[in-house]
Every structure is written in C-alpha cells, then in structure tokens.
C-alpha cells in the first residue's frame, strides 16, 4: 500500500476517532441539537427514548469506526458505519436551512458542506478498499 494511502486513511480515521470520542464522553449541547432529528427518526425507526444515550452511542460508533479506518481494519465496514453515523449527525447538527440569522446560517452551511465532503472521503475510502493493493 502506498504511503499516501496510509496517510490519507489515518488522517480521515483520526478525525472521526477524536470527534467521536468527544461526543461519546461529553455529549453536552449535542443532545439538544439532536432532539428534533431524533424525534423525526423515531417516527420511522424504534430508538431508545434517551437522547443522550443515542448521542453517546453515535459518538462511540464514530470513535471505533474511525480507529478501525485509521488502522486499516475492516475498511469497508468502518466506512459504512461512519457514513451511517455521519448522515444523521449532519442533519441534526447543521440544519442551515432553518437558521434565520445570515451569519449563523452561513456557519451552519459551511459545517454541512464540510460534513458532505467528509462523506465523499468515506466513499473514496470504501471504493479504495475494494481495489487490488499496490
């Protein structure tokens, strides 16, 4: 495997590991930010009633998935878990279309787009894991 692939995988995975660990250990304001989205998801998917538990579990999934990706373990599984976690995280945390203040709206749109780019990076990592090795 090329050095560039190893570095790219480690940089991508480490971001999820660090941010996921923070969410799992100190969910804080993320719980309130996730409440409306979790309520909408509960209409379709049975989830535990405790929003904090879900935020912590989501953070743990990101931390573990990110560590696995960084280490090159189960890359297709880890990228799938991370993508499945990132989509609701992005929708819950960066609903820029609901923000009235122009500056806050712009900030949330930038964060939404950053997460979309991270999702694209996961797609590349998933596809790369299916390639024959160098």
UniProtKB/TrEMBL annotation:
It comes from the Bacteria. Keywords: Membrane, Transmembrane, Transmembrane helix. GO terms for cellular component: membrane. It holds the Pfam family DoxX. It is a multi-pass membrane protein. The keyword Membrane applies. It is found in: Membrane. Its main location: membrane. InterPro entries: DoxX. This is DoxX family protein. It comes from Nocardia panacis. The lineage of its organism: Bacteria, Bacillati, Actinomycetota, Actinomycetes, Mycobacteriales.
